[in-house]
Amino acid sequence: MEKNGIDTLTKKELIIIQKRDKKCVYCGSDKNLTFDHIIPLNNRGDNSFLNGVMACINCNSSKGNKNVFEWCKSKNYRVPEIIINNLKKRERKHF
């Protein structure tokens, strides 16, 4: 259950994310893909279209509830463009 009460992700939106992100947005693997919350639920993230990407189970588990920018830096990954774009859209939406 969503911790902050915001659960707007529809089944249709999840399918769009799965089709858009055919590979892990972090490492590029196409194996064992899972839904990843860009901003983790326990860090005031929500279960919404703009807060979701597909990540392999290894990256998703490793990232856990860490800040996506700090986690990417620790792994020497470039922060994926889709994440930057989604965070910008989320910011505009909240103001």
Topology:
Blueprint: H1 11-20, E1 33-37, E2 52-56, H2 57-63, H3 68-75, H4 81-94
What does this structure look like?
Helix content is 41%, strand content 11%. The chain has 4 helices and 2 strands. The chain has a two-stranded antiparallel sheet. The chain is globular.
List keywords for this structure.
95 residues; alpha+beta; DNA Binding (I), subunit A; two-stranded antiparallel sheet; 41% helix; disordered N terminus
Fraction of helical residues: 40-55%
CATH architecture: Orthogonal Bundle
The count of β-strands is 2
Task: Report the top-level CATH class.
Answer: Mainly Alpha
Strand order of the largest sheet: 1-2
Mean pLDDT: 92
Helix-strand string: HEEHHH
Q: Write down the domain tally.
A: 1
In angstroms, what is the radius of gyration?
13 Å
Tell me the number of helical segments per DSSP (H or I, 4 or more residues long): 4
Structural class by SSE content: alpha+beta
Strand content range: 5-15%
CATH topology: DNA Binding (I), subunit A
Could you write a compact summary of the structure shown?
The protein is α+β, with helices and mostly antiparallel strands and 95 residues long.
